[in-house]
Design a protein that fits this description.
Layout lengths: L15 E6 L2 E7 L9 E7 L6 E4 L4 E8 L1 E6 L2 E6 L3 E4 L5 E5 L5 E8 L4 H13 L5 H10 L3 E6 L3
Antiparallel strand pairs: 1-2, 2-3, 3-10, 4-11, 5-8, 5-10, 6-7, 6-9
């Protein structure tokens, strides 16, 4: 994407893609680079049963909108089931995680404010995952570099 102070309009299915695995990806709608640092915005494509480990962001706010599917979401100590149309805003410092609890691939629209770190984070993770099963210590180091502080395991079904 090209840096710009112009509006960004992308149709459904448009946007550059990063891959964590053959069936897990991010479709980038805007990045810190294209929004002058305002936000990172992407569609997270999540296969059934998958989601990230419990984590927090010390310097970023995050929001979610469930576009497709059913997800189990943990916010602090609360776990809930949410589906299409649900939304969530997370102030910095709040532990959270999600897991696709449905039987089909789910889609989340995610935003991180301010922007500028998440695309690079997922690109680095993708390279790591392509080289084989990741080492937890290396995952934690990469996360810390991009303000993703892991504090617990992924959610279980």
């Amino acid at each position: 994407m090209i840096p710009s102070s112009l509006p960004i309009l992308l149709q459904a299915g448009q946007g550059e893609t990063t891959r964590l695995a053959e069936n897990a990806s991010q479709v980038w709608k805007a990045t810190g680079e294209t929004t002058n640092g305002a936000l990172d915005l992407w569609v997270e494509v999540v296969p059934p049963g998958l989601g990230p480990p419990q984590h927090l962001h010390s310097h970023h706010e995050e929001f979610f909108w469930i576009v497709k599917g059913t997800f189990q979401i943990k916010v602090a100590d609360r776990i809930m089931s949410v589906s299409e149309g649900a939304s969530l805003f997370l102030p910095r410092g709040i532990v959270h995680a999600f897991r696709n609890s449905g039987t089909e691939t789910g889609h989340l629209l995610l935003g991180l404010l301010p922007g500028g770190v998440m695309r690079e984070y997922f690109e680095e993770l993708g390279r790591l995952f392509l080289s084989g099963p990741p080492d937890q210590r290396i995952l934690s180091q990469i996360g810390a570099k991009y303000d993703v502080v892991f504090v617990g395991p992924p959610l279980e079904g």
